[in-house]
């Protein structure tokens, strides 16, 4: 893997205000991936491919990442970035809306990383639970959403996102098959381990 190219991708995304995984969040996830050595990872929300590229370092030898992105220009940039770093044989990019693509997937995954439309997190969770392997882990990034989720914040524009993120948290906490912890890294990270 070309680390120099990866650093360039990160800098460019930050300069262009493209939301990519934050360093402290990545650090936490990497610790889990090092221990797990996953064979299959599903990522919902590719953006420019940065997190998927980072995760490839921790895959089992012939492991694969499936990632989903719906924005045309992000897809193009992600493809270029994945090639630049030299991990195109490890990442499979699905182009389109995760809400339509997820129900068609028949794979099973060791890890699911949710980092897409906040209003869709409960749906993503339902699909993730269908495809996650025993002892797998579901990570949900930005789960605290600037602190709104745990406050009594109710600004109209974010109301749906906040309501759905709260719904996600309620579901992962009440599901007897999951052991969930919430970390205040980045914009909040929910880690749900399958029992």
Question: Could you walk me through the main structural features you see in this protein, from its secondary elements to its overall organization?
Answer:
This protein is of the alpha/beta class and 195 residues long. It has one domain (3-194): Vaccinia Virus protein VP39 (Rossmann fold, 3-Layer(aba) Sandwich), CATH 3.40.50.150. The chain contains 7 helices and 7 strands. The chain has helices spanning 3-15, 23-36, 50-56, 72-85, 98-101, 121-131, 159-174; strands at residues 40-44, 64-69, 91-95, 109-114, 132-141, 178-183, 189-194. It has a 7-stranded mixed beta sheet with strand order 3-2-1-4-5-7-6, sandwiched between helices. Helix 3 links the parallel strand 1 (40-44) and strand 2. It is globular and about 45 Å long.
**N-to-C span:** 33 Å
Assembly category: single chain
What is the approximate shape? globular
Number of strands: 7
Could you name the CATH topology? Rossmann fold
**Average pLDDT over all residues:** 95
SSE string: HHEHEHEHEHEHEE
Query: Beta-strand level of the residues, as a percent range?
Result: 15-25%
Helix content: 40-55%
Count of structural domains: 1
Question: Widest sheet: strand order?
Answer: 3-2-1-4-5-7-6
Helical stretch count? 7
Structure class? alpha/beta
| Main sheet attributes: strand count, strand direction, barrel closure | 7 strands, mixed
Q: Report low-confidence residues grouped into runs of 5 or more.
A: none
Q: Do you know the CATH architecture?
A: 3-Layer(aba) Sandwich
The Rg value, from CA coordinates, equals: 16 Å
């Amino acid at each position: 893997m070309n680390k120099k190219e990866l650093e360039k991708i990160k800098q460019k995304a930050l300069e262009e205000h493209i939301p990519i995984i934050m360093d402290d969040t990545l650090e936490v996830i990497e610790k889990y991936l090092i221990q797990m050595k996953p064979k299959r990872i599903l990522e919902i929300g590719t953006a420019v491919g940065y997190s998927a590229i980072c995760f490839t370092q921790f895959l089992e030898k012939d492991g694969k990442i499936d990632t989903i992105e719906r924005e045309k220009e992000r897809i193009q940039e992600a493809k270029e970035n994945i090639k630049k770093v030299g991990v195109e044989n490890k990442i499979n990019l699905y182009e389109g809306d995760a809400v339509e693509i997820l129900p068609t997937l028949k794979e099973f995954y060791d890890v699911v990383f949710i980092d897409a439309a906040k209003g869709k997190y409960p749906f993503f969770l339902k699909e993730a639970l269908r495809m996650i392997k025993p002892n797998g882990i579901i990570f949900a990034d930005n789960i605290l959403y600037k602190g709104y989720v745990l406050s009594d914040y109710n600004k109209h524009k974010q109301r749906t996102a906040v309501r759905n993120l709260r719904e996600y948290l309620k579901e992962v906490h009440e599901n007897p098959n999951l052991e969930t912890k919430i970390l205040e890294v980045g914009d909040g990270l929910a880690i749900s381990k399958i029992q």
